[in-house]
From TrEMBL:
Residue stretches making up the Endoribonuclease L-PSP/chorismate mutase-like domain: 7-141
PANTHER family: ENDORIBONUCLEASE L-PSP_CHORISMATE MUTASE-LIKE DOMAIN-CONTAINING PROTEIN (PTHR43760:SF1), ENDORIBONUCLEASE-RELATED (PTHR43760)
InterPro entries hit by this protein: Endoribo_LPSP/chorism_mut-like (IPR013813), RutC-like_sf (IPR035959)
Span of the signal peptide: none
Segments crossing the lipid bilayer: none
Lineage: Bacteria, Pseudomonadati, Pseudomonadota, Alphaproteobacteria, Hyphomicrobiales
SUPFAM superfamilies tied to this protein: YjgF-like
Domain of life, source organism: Bacteria
One of the Pfam families matching this protein, by short name: YjgF_endoribonc
Native source species: Nitratireductor pacificus pht-3B
Protein name: Endoribonuclease L-PSP
Amino acid sequence: MGKIDDKLASLGITLPATVAPAANYVPARRLGTQVFISGQVPSRDGKDLYTGKLGSDFSTEEGQAAARVCAVNVLAQLRQALDGDLDRVVGVVRLGGFVNAEPDFGEHPKVVNGASDLMVEVFGEAGRHARAAIGCYSLPRNVPVEIEALFEVR
């Protein structure tokens, strides 16, 4: 068990088994020292844990919880791409957050903080990253949040 696995355990986080993509893409793609993780939604064991929109179905805090689930799924895909060794992560480069929200909802950055905060909890200073928090009219299967990521690895 590595340092990052120990950190996850101390946070009470067990990374789930990854699921195969439902469309024509790969969940992770490595290019040299970078690993790109495709958008992850708040699901577990093939079931969506949240469906609906921010601003009508969910509060900002509930959106943060959904974004955190997405981030856990990002880490699960990353672990698989790194043959189980998250200690190979040099840093989190960027997160992209997509928020399924009502037109008058304006707290997209706060929602995506659910994912950003987890990266800093897990990786410390190496978890600080650039990011985008984008409002969307809809997301696949009506999930409230989707998170994609880019990591630097060794």
